Amino acid sequence: MLSTLQQPPRSLSRIPLHLKPLRSFFTVASASASQDQSSPPSSQILTVRQALLSRQTTATQLAESYLSRLSLTEPHLHSFLHISDSLLRDAQLIDRKIERGEDVGLLAGVLVGVKDNICTADMPSTGGSRILENYKAPFDATAVRRVKEKDGILIGKTNLDEFGMGSTTEASSFQVTANPWDLSRVPGGSSGGSAAAVSARQCMVSLGSDTGGSVRQPASFCGVVGLKPTYGRVSRFGLMAYASSLDVIGCLGTSVADTGILLHVISGHDRFDATSSNREVPDFSSQFASINLVESKPLKGLKVGLIHETLEDGVDNGVKSAISGAATHLEELGCTVTEVSLPSFSLGLPAYYILASSESSSNLSRYDGARYGNQVFAEELNALYSDSRAKGFGPEVQMRILMGTYALSAGYYDAYYKRAQKVRTLIRKSFKDALDDNDILISPVAPSAAYKIGEKKNDPLAMYAGDIMTVSISLLLYA
Amino acid sequence: MASTLFRNIQTVPLLLYPSAFFRRKNGALYCTIKSSSSSVTQTQTATQEKQQDPQIKVSTQTQTKTADKLIKDYEAIIGIETHVQLSTLTKAFCGCPYNYGAKPNTSICPVCMGLPGALPVLNSKVIEFAVKLGLALNCKLSLNSKFDRKQYFYPDLPKGYQISQFDIPIATNGYVDLDLPMEFGGGHRRFGITRVHMEEDAGKLLHSGNGIGIAVDLNRAGVPLLEIVSEPDMRNGIEAAEYAAEIQRVVRYLGISNGNMQEGSLRCDVNVSIRPIGQSEFGTKVEIKNLNSFSSVNRAIDFEISRQVLLHSQGQGSSIVQETRLWEEGSQKTITMRKKEGLSDYRYFPEPDLPEVIVKKEYVDSIQNSLPELPEMKRRRYESMGLSMQDVLFLANDINVAEFFDATIAKGADVKLATNWIMGDIAAYMKNEKVSINDIKLKPQELAELIASIKGGTISGKIGKEILFELISKGGTVKGLIEEKNLVQIVDPAEIEKMVDKVLSENPKQLEQFRAGKTKIQGFFAGQVMKISKDSAGGIFMRTLFRTAETNYIPS
């Protein structure tokens, strides 16, 4: 999560790519960026903006180069479910605006991938599910609308575990996405398509969604920056609900700066989402400074807590050494790093899976085949429901619906759902206590790096266990 | 709320959605299932719109004489669940308006269609109306309540769950006071209110003409409802029907619903059980649906009580089972709709898409202070004005009539005279023309003026009546009409004397008979004088003059 990458993954260098236009662009862009010390050179968004406004390139040229890169990488990666038909047209519109000297938005010419459980009016939105195959939403999600209002260009819809339920993107009804760094490995999930696409430079930034780690974990597996905002910071309107009290739309990019800028664009209260926060949106990007300009210990005095429970047995040595490397780096920047213990941390995983499954069993009720989506012909009503849902949902989704239905059933509600809510309160309190003593808390994202495709497919518990480090944070709600 | 964003969706319904979503016919959505017999009966409540006489009648035909005798040994326990559709401008959780009878699926948006990614946002008017009703029903309000999801599958429920309130309803533990009509023996009653909670309505299932599928109209989906659950305090059909009528009056007085039963704005589901008098345990309760008028509430309950009493008295008490029965207007019977197989598990849990409902005490107080005079308060006030219960019930029954009456007496009209005019000629006109008091052209101040003009002797009662019908149908002012038609009562004794002279001299035969003691002939003279005076001779003076004539009048 903390590392930012300047180069595309090595594995793709094995794929015969004709990267000439792209390379030349990046050369030009980074050269110009290094001249201007005020903008962080690692921000693709700011680099693109500068290149367009200084007429060094056009949005159309950029879009064309990304399209040609897509046509080469996509057969190996399968990160997209749909590619926009209007990509070049949208780019031309930006170019014309610039030619006419009109103001363009902060994301002008920026190519944005959108996870396919986020509704878009111009492209299908399937949620990675067979039951919504070819479904086209009549509206843009608020986050998408805000990206478009800032002149961002949607490049396509990215693959995901069906309705966000999974940690590998293998649970997509349509295709398995590969990790750009090693095509035999999973990109993580459920925003695997969004992470892989950014990692492979198929798009500049992307929107994902995070319910229990679905932005953070694939970002970690694919070596990009993933940002899960606080619940309510970004409107959920247009995000197909998985677990409404946990779902958040998040950002993926190749730099902290890019995810910060994207978050700034999509944040803020939305009258179509009653759970969106009324709090003012700070300009995250205005705080960015070039590394050359800051003092030697810019984070002096910042107290950092390293969550002890995320370094225990079952965590790969490589992960442990990476996080201690990051801790050392933070100390070099002036932080004091201490280990903190969160006693209720391990309870987060069962509580999360009970709450998320319960809410999903309700949220997915609307996919009954009666009004939209795939419908199975049946002689009577109950058969229509059960057949449409049996054929439309994949096994992982069916399992979670069953678990959630069970947890909410009369006689079990108190033992499962209600108890999990109590655990949620406990976890929230333990985090609050830890944050009373520390300014920030850090932890690895996952117990291991990306594993092989198929490795955990038949062992859901092992896959769920991989979410141990991210789910507790999701349970916090407003901090 | 969502009107801007979804405007084009509302005006061109469904065109924006790929045709694969819906099998459409006549603007309604179809799912390809055969309409089984159970779904046919289940849709009747939604589609039957029979016109009912709003007057309550006791149907004795449904009760056999044996049952009548037996009923004395039993006690019926009746509780009512009432759904009131709120007349907010927009639905509960989106910006769509709702108009009864609109073309199917013309007032829908992604939110009330339950499309993926759509979220509910609460219409604050729903809270306001709920608080109003809670206070009007003397309930305890929950300052912190929440919404819950009630989950079940049905084609008229687009999300697969209904947003409702489960364990913390907005209002609990209240009561409603009412007076039974005089024709049913009268008497004051107080019935307990268990709870009032907020929820959303479902869509409507419609039959497709060809019988192949069921069509869904989602116009009604998401319309706000308040569900009012009564305590099991009612003992017979009349009490239950009057309870429902009082709920209708209360929501109309509050202006939160049109309370129209035929349109389904007010729906009553009734629970009935019986037990032998003296027994403390309750009997098995049966639910009755499809009650489209107060009179059907009354008749269905009385039928059901008879049915249960007969079964029980014949030793077949065990065949009274927990079930939902349907009231059939045609046969005046209840029939089995579905047997309840154990308790349905709705898997309620807190609605995560909506924040908690927090109502501040100051807000409740401000609503309390702005509440209108409610039916019970009005009845007690009218009673204290010296009106009979018959008058009180008539006037307070319809808020528009009550307001008309109040405005009339506020203009200084005599209470009893105003009551008589309203309950007499005005009510008769409204009944004949099938109009409401708001549709007539007569203004309360003119009725007050009319009453004053008669009382003060400016016009006669008979002319008053004529003017009244003119005022009701065409409008205008009492003064204007009197002048226009030269209807001022002739009060000058000399002028009347002249007319009397004329009549007496022209009818010597009759005068003779009169003098001979045939006093009834006085009416004949009066008629003649009125004829000459074109109805404007004052009655009082007429009588005085004739009294004179009786004794010493000698025609010149």
TrEMBL record, chain A:
It is an enzyme of class 6 (ligase). GO terms for cellular component: chloroplast stroma; glutamyl-tRNA(Gln) amidotransferase complex; mitochondrion. It is found in: Mitochondrion; Plastid, Chloroplast stroma. The active site is at K115, S190, S214. Its EC number is 6.3.5.7. Pfam families: Amidase. Its main location: mitochondrion. One of its GO terms (molecular function) is glutaminyl-tRNA synthase (glutamine-hydrolyzing) activity. It catalyses: L-glutamyl-tRNA(Gln) + L-glutamine + ATP + H2O = L-glutaminyl-tRNA(Gln) + L-glutamate + ADP + phosphate + H(+). Residues 62-471 form the Amidase domain. Keywords: ATP-binding, Chloroplast, Ligase, Mitochondrion, Nucleotide-binding, Plastid, Protein biosynthesis. InterPro entries: Amidase, Amidase_CS, Amidase_dom, AS_sf, GatA. The keyword Nucleotide-binding applies. GO terms for biological process: glutaminyl-tRNAGln biosynthesis via transamidation; mitochondrial translation. HAMAP family: GatA. Belongs to the amidase family. GatA subfamily. Subunit of the heterotrimeric GatCAB amidotransferase (AdT) complex, composed of A, B and C subunits. This protein may be expected to contain an N-terminal transit peptide but none has been predicted. PANTHER family: GLUTAMYL-TRNA(GLN) AMIDOTRANSFERASE SUBUNIT A, MITOCHONDRIAL, TRANSAMIDASE. Allows the formation of correctly charged Gln-tRNA(Gln) through the transamidation of misacylated Glu-tRNA(Gln) in chloroplasts and mitochondria. The reaction takes place in the presence of glutamine and ATP through an activated gamma-phospho-Glu-tRNA(Gln). This is Glutamyl-tRNA(Gln) amidotransferase subunit A, chloroplastic/mitochondrial. The lineage of its organism: Eukaryota, Viridiplantae, Streptophyta, Embryophyta, Tracheophyta. The gene is GATA.
Automatic annotation (TrEMBL), chain B:
PROSITE patterns: GATB (PS01234). Residues 403-545 form the Asn/Gln amidotransferase domain. The keyword Lipid metabolism does not apply. It is found in: Mitochondrion; Plastid, Chloroplast. GO terms for biological process: glutaminyl-tRNAGln biosynthesis via transamidation; mitochondrial translation. The keyword Plastid applies. Its main location: mitochondrion. GO terms for molecular function: ATP binding; glutaminyl-tRNA synthase (glutamine-hydrolyzing) activity. GO terms for cellular component: chloroplast; glutamyl-tRNA(Gln) amidotransferase complex; mitochondrion. It catalyses: L-aspartyl-tRNA(Asn) + L-glutamine + ATP + H2O = L-asparaginyl-tRNA(Asn) + L-glutamate + ADP + phosphate + 2 H(+); L-glutamyl-tRNA(Gln) + L-glutamine + ATP + H2O = L-glutaminyl-tRNA(Gln) + L-glutamate + ADP + phosphate + H(+). Allows the formation of correctly charged Gln-tRNA(Gln) through the transamidation of misacylated Glu-tRNA(Gln) in chloroplasts and mitochondria. The reaction takes place in the presence of glutamine and ATP through an activated gamma-phospho-Glu-tRNA(Gln). This is Glutamyl-tRNA(Gln) amidotransferase subunit B, chloroplastic/mitochondrial.
